[in-house]
Write the structure tokens for this entry.
Amino acid sequence: MTTLQAKQVSKSGAVHGGAGHNDADDGFSDLHPAYSTLQAMAESNRCLYCYDAPCVTACPTSIDIPGFIRKISTGNPDGAAKTILSANIMGGTCARACPTEVLCEEACVRNVAEDTAVEIGSLQRFAVDHLMARDLPHPFKRAPKTGKTIAVVGAGPAGLSCAHRAAMLGHDVVVFEAKPKPGGLNEYGLAAYKMTEDFAQREVEFLMGIGGIEIEYNKALGKDINLADLKAKYDAVFVGVGLGATNDLGLKGEDFPGVDDAISFIEKLRQTEPKSDMPVGDKVIVIGGGNTAIDAAVQAKRLGAEEVTLVYRRGPENMSATEFEQDLAKTNGVVVRYWAKPVAIKANGKLMGMEFEKTELDASGKLVGTGETFDVQADQILKAIGQKIKTDDLAGMEITGGKIVVDETYQTTAPGVFAGGDCIKSGEDLTVQSVEDGKQAAIAIDAFLKTA
Amino acid sequence: MADLSCKIAGIDSLNPFWLASAPPTDKKYNVVRAFEAGWGGVVWKTLGIDPPVVNVSSRYGAHHDQNRRLLGINNIELISDRPLETNLQEIRECRVEYPDHVIIGSMMAPIEERAWKDLAQQIAESGVHGLELNLGCPHGMCERGMGSAIGQVPEMVEQVTRWVKDAVDIPVFTKLTPNITNILWSAEAALKGGADAVSLINTVNSIISVDIDNMVPEPVVDGKGTHGGYCGSAVKPIALNMVAEIARTPETRDLEISGIGGITTWKDAVEFMSLGSNAVQVCTAAMIYGFRVVDDLIDGMSQWMDDKGYTSVEQFTRAAVPQVSDWNELNMNFDTKAVINPDNCIECGRCHIACEDTSHQAITMTDKPEGGRLFEVVDEECVGCNLCYHICPVPDCITMEPVKTDKPPMTWPEHPLNPMRMAAE
């Protein structure tokens, strides 16, 4: 049993939490507050309306960014939202969670002109929120019914994006979801301050407005359903199961109470209401260098942990977390220690902390321990050292390098079974890439069904 | 700091910046604030014969850019709606309190000799430096036979100017409306009538926008709208042309000009003066930002004069007039090409798409081996139209470079392809 307690988060304690905070902040409010109409007008007019724009090329879903921003600037935000959603039905989540600083906003020509990109993510959120706040009919129409039904495994970004596009193309879709709620990592895996006001659920409800999509919950692949049955019963199958397992440190005591996966910690937090009821340690260690590590560290700090130490085995330039995310950790008071790897979990009836060994690159560029060690006290340890595919559920499909193998049409080695999202090797493991995978797979499935 | 003092129609002014006859010069309170802010003079809001007019509620419409910056305003306000004597008393007080600042009395009356002469004399007795005849308002007053109803008929322009010149011995400015086919006709009429100067342009007749929820032209007055007078930076090009036409035409070039029309910055003022204005009047810029804009007008112009070595405004007044010519006098053998500096290019692609879609397909877009895009001008296709140069968001990224040629200058009348010339041979 863990002894972790929920903390009384004082307002003053949360105020040093970083950009976008205000007096009303409880540590879970929006990281980037929504734009006002005036802010949207000013920012949209900074867009140069580039031709064949670099930001579009940088977007995995190829949203017509200059086109939608122009519509905002002319007072047509709902038209802007349709432009966004026609390329990316989860444009609302992507506006909140995308690492725009390494995608569209990194490519913005305003970086060259004046060193500050147009805030594309905030503008995208303004447009999509504007449309979703209105009680309008779903903006997309379905093609005439094809009579075909597609099974989608996983109601995450890839699965739902695939389902929506397939429904648009006239197919019926049944989605099987292992968890009790839809949304995948949008619902369970992103920091609370990125997805306020139950946005993941509202977005799924909006997406389902297309019609022709059913979701069956608590149906896990390999347990409640299996691929062979799905193949037999449906005209095509799309697998968007994500990465269901996590990597281990390989240390003794990893199952000790207080040692947890960062992704599970985020999942619990996202499902806890009120969020301030979520227990957290006094002294927390987070191990890892990705965005999930940052999410967990910042979230732990905002929950009231006194000390949060993020330990990464290499230097800041090697972290997969973006510079913005790394800065977010620092401005939230997270202590970041580079060049150290965990060597032992220390417990004495209760969790005491961890021992780390300093690391460096040897002459050949290989990461090695220096022999020098240090201890960090902790009553909670969160591991964010990567997720991996749960291979045992995926019989019948070839898996290489921890990813399902697909061809250029997203078809796996099992005929009629397609896959996308984090469980395949496409781009980065990002929501926006999963949405693109799902969309493209639906188009490929449509072509497959027409020729089958 | 350069000397900005100037003289127009024999009137000395501290600087060439006057406030035009409009709401900002409606009463002493505003005028005092304007003089304190640094304006050299004001043209008092147009005075009419009592009883005063009655104005409607909701008076201005707006032409915004997408950033909600005002490009232009139109108004349906009439002349001063205060009793004549109230205005005259305040003018007298201002003349005493601000003896070095210029006050011009703007006036308007029906097309009757007695009306114009009596009103002119009454205003002149208040001590104004001069009179400005408002023959331009394109809304409201014209429906009563005044404003542009007079200004659009050259014979009436001449007649009214003469009546006033006969009645008073102070300088008379005839204010011209742009809502005509040829500004020279009214300018010439003013000259014949004895005007000491012309003021132009008055506002441009316009409907500025429509309330598309209620289907009413704006500004809306209880469910209806009417055409009004358009002003602000959007009308500057129209005004510059009319000023230049008067300044360069032999029949009218002796007229002194008080330039008006969208002057917002010191550079605008320099342009008006270079094309023939002896001084300028400003209204909309002050209505948008307050009287403090005069600070930049004064400072910017004097800084520019210092940089250029001008010691008086007369040195650049009309300096651009000799270069204003007819199209037929342009050199057909002159050639200029766009040059894109890749070091300054931010790769927005706007020059390419503008040229590709709407011009001469003279800018190519290619992928650079190291990533990014390269934009290059195809000299054989480039006609030197300037479109890319104007569209480019980066100053000095695209320049227009004249092509060296051995060909002597040749005008269209001299050109071998001119059918008129061929017919004459």
Q: What stands out?
A: Chain A touches chain B through 17 residues (CB under 8 Å).
